[in-house]
Amino acid sequence: MSHRSPEPSSIRDDRPSGDPGDYAFRHDIRVRFAETDAMGIVHHSRYLPYLEEARVEYLRSIGHPYDAERSEGVDYAVLEAHLAYRQPLHFDDVVTVHLRVTSATRASFTIQYLLTVDGAVTSTATTVHACVNDKGRPVRLPRWLSELVAPLR
Amino acid sequence: MSHRSPEPSSIRDDRPSGDPGDYAFRHDIRVRFAETDAMGIVHHSRYLPYLEEARVEYLRSIGHPYDAERSEGVDYAVLEAHLAYRQPLHFDDVVTVHLRVTSATRASFTIQYLLTVDGAVTSTATTVHACVNDKGRPVRLPRWLSELVAPLR
Amino acid sequence: MSHRSPEPSSIRDDRPSGDPGDYAFRHDIRVRFAETDAMGIVHHSRYLPYLEEARVEYLRSIGHPYDAERSEGVDYAVLEAHLAYRQPLHFDDVVTVHLRVTSATRASFTIQYLLTVDGAVTSTATTVHACVNDKGRPVRLPRWLSELVAPLR
Amino acid sequence: MSHRSPEPSSIRDDRPSGDPGDYAFRHDIRVRFAETDAMGIVHHSRYLPYLEEARVEYLRSIGHPYDAERSEGVDYAVLEAHLAYRQPLHFDDVVTVHLRVTSATRASFTIQYLLTVDGAVTSTATTVHACVNDKGRPVRLPRWLSELVAPLR
Predict the structure, then answer these.
(1) Residue D148: per-residue pLDDT
(2) Of D108, D123, D101, whose CA–CA distance to D31 is shortest?
(3) DSSP code string of B65-89
(4) Range of the structural domain that residue A64 is part of
(5) From edge to edge, which strands make up the β-sheet containing D108-117?
(6) Which residues of A touch D67 (CB under 8 A)?
């Protein structure tokens, strides 16, 4: 097939590592019953809030709580998300979300995730984010974020 | 960076068309208030249930309602999902989800989506599905689905 | 037991009718797969967005779309909700939400709901709402709403 | 108005205490961004999964993990839920859910909840549950639960 996409994807160039040791941060989340579906597993849409919760805890851990960023008028829009589901998650599982910032441009950055339960890989994911102001317009990354991702450029 | 993924991705080879005319099916969904978030837009996790609703209506439209498939012990696990968010969705928007099956293997198939509001493209997405039995084990695609996607192989 | 609640409840005085003929408005919603849980039924938290969708369609039907109200700085906070689950809902069910405004004070109003599937009652519900301004402060009901509920006082 | 409800409500007889000291168990939950809505607060439907998470942790704390109960074919259907929203919850709030079992019959039991943030009461809630078997049929409460609630009868 030959149809084309209007813009290149930063997600496609690189795949998340399956090795927890490659990730800078980890956060545990226990699966709620409300997140399961009639197949008896966690519904595939429920992973994105897990990734978001892990991002929020990561920002807190490096001294830049998301809430503070938002109060200063900077927000992080999600531009892209990719999820690869390998093994299902079940009610009451404790999911460890491993994450790392893997690349950045002037106005966007990419985060990769590895999800494990009891050490076994269940899924990987990637999200791409832009910094936007309170009107949703793209702005440059804040300085602390630029410096964080500088080695990645 | 050089880490590797254990399996190739069928999503990465191809990108959804931005032309509604390229899609076989369309389904309208009105955004619920409960689907918005504190940024005033639809939360990015809420798109996956929209795609799922469109798949369900597509299956119904071609005479293979999902519920009937499930009763016969065939289910469709989601293996991968990719979402590219271009323009936000807002409360009360009527989103048109355009959909087409774009490729298939013996045990999996790929669907692409284009989301529009009043004709303007807001996002694209791709999902990859496997057929599984009631124990979650992969099985061959049912015959009708094989025949549907045969021209795509 | 003798502990007391700080405020009286408008919900407790009255119970929703089980007769669809008692309701002013009805709206159909098809259950999404994403709304089911591992018990194979619709999760009990998913009913509240159904009620909300029905309220939104009701407001539209009487010429006061919720979105327009919100643009004018009036919002409807939920003060109380009561749900009585009699029969479960399942994936792909078409749920008919019957609703009516049943009472009002200067700053709040009550809505009752009857949920049916194929004519059989599955649940009833009641919600109590306050009108609030864009800072979340209670304000008097808009005139059209006062007039709508005047016969109920 | 004179319409009648087909069954009496165990919720209406009693209201949750506003005093945290009256509750047997407490569990903290941090609000996710995905749980907020375009009013900038936690959507009212999102409280029910919070209550459920607290119930699950309570059962674990008394040696009867929900997952184990479900494996033995006993499940807890939600018959009724009542929520009184006093103050909104916001993104990143740490909500303390206080909980106690307040009454029981042969086949159902009632739980009351008090939600606080930094010690301030934000809402109260009540849920009524039935024990059901794996076909969704009501069964007697398991012995440990009967004994737990015996003093309440």
Answers:
(1) 79
(2) D123
(3) -HHHHHHTT-EEEEEEEEEEE-S--
(4) 20-152
(5) C25-30, C94-104, C108-117, C120-132, C75-85, D75-85, D120-132, D108-117, D94-104, D25-30
(6) 91-92
Are A33 and C37 within 8 A, CB to CB? yes
Show the beta-strand stretches assigned E in chain B. 25-30, 75-85, 94-104, 108-117, 120-132
How many residue pairs bridge chain A and chain B with CB atoms within 8 Å of each other?
91
* Shortest alpha-carbon distance between residue C148 and chain D (Å): 17
Residue among C40, C43, C91 minimizing CB distance to A34: C43
Is C28 a domain residue? yes
Structure tokens at C43: 């999760």
What was the pLDDT predicted at D103? 85
Structure tokens at C124: 């009833």
In CATH, what number is assigned to the domain containing residue C123? Answer: 3.10.129.10
For the sheet containing B108-117, what is the strand order?
A: A25-30, A94-104, A108-117, A120-132, A75-85, B75-85, B120-132, B108-117, B94-104, B25-30
Nearest Cα to Cα of residue A90 among A122, A124, A53: A122
The answer to whether position A5 is within a domain reads: no
Residue of C132, C129, C133, C135 lying closest to C148 (CA atoms):
C129
The per-residue pLDDT for range C97-120, each reduced to its tens digit, is 999 999 888 889 999 999 999 999
Closest residue in C to B48 (Cα) is C34
How far is Cα B104 from Cα B101, in angstroms, rounded to an integer?
8
Is C22 part of the annotated catalytic residue set?
Answer: no
- Asked if the Cβ–Cβ distance from C48 to B34 is below 8 Å, we say yes
Q: Is A149 left (phi over 0), alpha (psi -120 to 50) or beta?
A: alpha
Task: Count how many residues are written for chain A.
Answer: 153
This prediction's pTM = 0.92
Query: How many folded domains does chain C comprise?
Result: 1
pLDDT in tens, B46-83: 999 999 999 999 999 999 888 787 778 888 899 999 99
The answer to whether C48 contacts chain B (CB < 8 Å) is yes
One of D13, D14, D37, D134 is an active-site residue; which one? Answer: D37
C135 class by beta-carbon count within 10 Å (0-12 exposed, 13-18 middle, 19+ buried): exposed
In a domain? residue A12: no
Whether residue B15 is contained in a domain is answered as no
Contact A109, A141 (CB under 8 A): yes
